[in-house]
Design goal:
Number of strands: 13
Structural class: alpha+beta
Mean pLDDT: 95
Distance between the termini: 39 Å
Order of helices and strands: EHHEHHEEHHHHEEHHHHEEEHEEEHE
Strand order of the largest sheet: 9-10-11-12-13
Helix content: 25-40%
Low-confidence stretches: none
């Protein structure tokens, strides 16, 4: 069985994640291809798509949100994701049990004795008037019935697990600050959530395997589980295994992939890319060694925005006064610093709607001395 080293896997990931070459996909098609974008920080998906798409217009993503073609909802790993409406309806029921268990993992003591089916029914009754509510408003409406649980555990169980919800615009629109207002997913989209397959065949699980490999492969089953949070996919993998090809990584793990998916030459040049906080190009794996060193792994869960240089996490970035400030994590060559600076200037222009003064644009990115 062919062994794929870390650099080969890195280039495959960059290609699948649209980070090797910016793509001409539409915004909607890009969100679908990526299996959604992690979006608990509302503005981060805009940077994620800017790094992946040519001529990305943030207004298009805002219009997709207000037009109900994409939604913000709790899904993979119980985190807020920006996904297409079609994927939200198709995938949500398959995630129900995982979402419940993840909330219970935090609030098991507080929710002891609460019948979750009764809580869900009561929550839906409150939301039946069609009025969007914050999590705390929904919880307060039911707090008298379950006073020992407390509003926070009740609210999180309802909004993140029991009632499929969307976070309504203006939350998540470009350059807009807005609190979270929730509405039931089915009422917002005017369509019912797809029910589980009655025969237990799990077509959604099989689709998730294929879609994950298209955007993240080659990958191990543990990587798939790390991305979606679902533990019950071995049967789905078995069902589609004849469609797949197999490799091994340098640790001996079996890696699965779609046969015709891109696996570029490991020596393919990889330009600098600026990633937003919690980008799934990093978080979508159990073994993240293909893209980030173990010494820096904590950055991926701490909300740091990172810079890829030669395809690997090599710096962090933030913005102050319309200037992109880069802090390298290793020594950068002169050519690498030039590449990072060029991409940083383009990012600064994007974040400021292209406002600049020509010759002064070089001041809008600053790279600290290499570590």
């Amino acid at each position: 069985m062919t062994v794929l080293d870390a650099r080969t896997l890195n280039r495959a990931t960059l290609a699948r994640q649209l980070l090797l070459d910016r793509s001409d996909l539409t915004v909607l098609d890009a969100v679908a291809h990526l299996g959604g974008l992690q979006a608990q920080e509302p503005q981060e998906p805009f940077v994620g798509l800017w790094s992946r798409l040519r001529a990305f217009d943030p207004a298009v993503l805002s219009d997709l949100l207000t037009g109900r073609s994409v939604v913000r909802t709790h899904l993979m790993r119980r985190t807020v994701h920006l996904v297409t409406a079609d994927d939200a309806l198709a995938w949500r029921a398959r995630h129900d049990a995982m979402l419940r268990q993840r909330v219970l993992g935090v609030y098991r003591n507080e929710l002891a004795g609460v019948d979750l089916d009764e809580l869900a029914t009561a929550g839906r009754a409150v939301m039946a008037d069609g009025e969007p509510r914050s999590m705390s408003e929904l919880a307060r409406a039911l707090a008298d019935r379950w006073p020992k649980a407390g509003p926070r555990p009740l609210g999180e169980m309802l909004v993140a697990a029991l009632i499929p919800m969307v976070q309504l615009p203006p939350r998540g629109l470009w350059r807009t600050r807005a609190g979270v207002r929730n509405a039931p997913l089915s009422s917002w989209l005017g369509r019912e959530i797809d029910p589980p397959a009655p025969d237990g065949s799990d077509p959604v699980g099989r689709q998730l395997v294929r879609r994950y490999l298209a955007a993240f492969g080659p990958a191990a089953s543990a990587d798939l589980r790390a991305w979606c949070g679902l533990a019950g996919l071995p049967a789905a993998i078995t069902a589609v295994r004849e469609e797949l090809v197999s490799f091994r990584d340098e640790r001996g793990r079996e890696l699965l992939d779609l046969p015709d998916a891109p696996r570029p030459d490991p020596e393919t040049s990889a330009p600098a890319r600026f990633l937003p906080a919690f980008d799934n190009a990093i978080l979508g794996y159990h073994d993240r060694g293909r893209i980030i060193d173990d010494a820096h792994r904590g950055l991926s869960v701490a909300g740091a925005r990172v810079v890829l240089v030669d395809g690997r996490v090599s710096g962090t970035w933030h913005v102050e006064a319309d200037t992109v400030l880069v802090t390298p994590l290793r020594r950068l060559s002169r050519a690498e610093r030039t590449d990072v600076a060029e991409q940083g200037r383009e990012l600064a222009a994007f974040l400021s709607d292209g406002d600049g003064d020509g010759d002064g644009d070089s001041d809008r990115v600053r790279i600290a001395a290499s570590a």
